[in-house]
Design brief:
Layout lengths: L2 H12 L4 H29 L15 H13 L6 H24 L1 E5 L4 E5 L13 E5 L1 H24 L10 H18 L1 H9 L1
Antiparallel strand pairs: 1-2, 2-3
Helix pairs in contact: 2-3, 2-4, 2-5, 3-4, 4-5, 4-6, 5-6
Length: 202
């Protein structure tokens, strides 16, 4: 074991990040990146504009802006069922990506036997941040839930991308809508978990 890897493992252990938690974080990262990939391509299809050889309007845009673009395009969709699907996907994705961003762009600020808290944009050292601070309470349970939510988001955006490429009717969207509502429910719970945990402790 090198000095560098020993130091890295010490950091992960001191943050309460078990191998299983890290596995779940990796799964969330992969699912989220694929979701973002298809979100951009769905926008291209819904825009109906050629992108080959051009710089599309989605280029270098953060996921929050891609979600907003999709939501706006969904409002003008004429294919039955597609608008509702996009609307629910955008609502769910906004919450779940907020959780993802706290993990991927935050630092471990606190840990106990159950939770590792990832904090992002903390106003430390007296600095002013453009974005509001956020956090994510990572236990094995909350990470499993977030992984489940991103599975639904990826499936949902893949369906939207496929549907946007053809004039064929979308068909029954009850099941994908139900899955996206489940993703919203998970995102709403996890995005506000800090308040719930603080309330339980005090």
């Amino acid at each position: 074991m090198t000095v560098q890897s020993k130091h890295r493992n010490t950091l992960l252990r001191s943050a309460g990040l078990t191998a299983k938690k890290l596995c779940s974080i990796g799964a969330v990262a992969v699912l989220a990146s694929h979701t973002e990939h298809y979100a951009e391509r769905a926008i291209w299809e819904l825009d109906g504009q050629p992108v080959k050889g051009l710089r599309p309007r989605t280029d270098a845009k953060p996921i929050a802006e891609l979600i907003k673009m999709l939501g706006e395009l969904g409002q003008s969709s004429t294919k039955p069922g597609l608008g509702a699907l996009i609307e629910q996907w955008a609502k769910s994705a906004k919450l779940c990506f907020s959780c993802r961003n706290s993990i991927m762009h935050g630092t471990t600020a606190y840990m106990d036997q159950e939770f590792t808290v990832f904090a992002r944009n903390l106003p430390s050292a007296g600095v002013v941040r453009k974005r509001d601070p956020s956090d994510f309470y990572a236990s094995q349970h909350t990470l499993d839930l977030l992984e489940e939510a991103f599975e639904y988001l990826l499936n949902g955006i893949h369906l939207i991308w496929l549907a946007a490429q053809t004039s064929v009717p979308l068909g029954d969207v009850k099941e994908p809508l139900a899955h996206l509502r489940r993703a919203w429910s998970i995102g709403a719970e996890l995005d506000n978990l800090a308040a719930a945990v603080t309330h339980e402790k005090y």
